[in-house]
Amino acid sequence: AGKYPEAIPPLQKAPRLTDRVFPWIALGDAATLSAKFDMAKQAYEKALQIDAGNARVMRGIGQLYIAQEKFDEAQKYLEGCVLKYPQNTKLRMALGNLYIVQNKPVKAIEALEPVVKVEPKNSEAHGLLGEAYARNLHLEAAIKEYTEVTKLSTSDPQAYGRIGLYNVNLTRYAQAREPLMKAIQLDPMDAH
User: What are the CA-CA distances from residue 77 to residues 16, 61, 101 (Å)?
Assistant: First the structure.
């Protein structure tokens, strides 16, 4: 969090110069990361006054609740946003990620499957869905999603590592070797 407190003073001045939403989002994000939660809330509220349907602001508010460890409030808020804007994939991903953090894999799968259907080239969504499947012990489905991640982003050591790990869990050691070696090759210090 070292650089975020220094970002706050210039960001506090920027919104006074414009009625655009993005300086308020940046201030809310920096304040959240600096644990200045009241300032973050005020910035996000101002951003919503400017653009009430801005999904980036809504995700920021969800992250603000999470940063304060108010997971139930984050869930309630993000679920409301997804109900209001069901086609917004970024909101669905934020909600799916929250469900993963809360160890609610079935709900995460329900939130994330529509995202990969409409955005098949979204590697982050495939990775989140893979994690949700794995937490629900659907390792074959998890491998499929992480394999998709490796097709979209060939330099993701975590995806290769997960493919290898889940193959080991399924006692398919020969199939685990290649992705595990690729993960180690890409990041020897953090291949998991």
Answer: 28, 8, 16
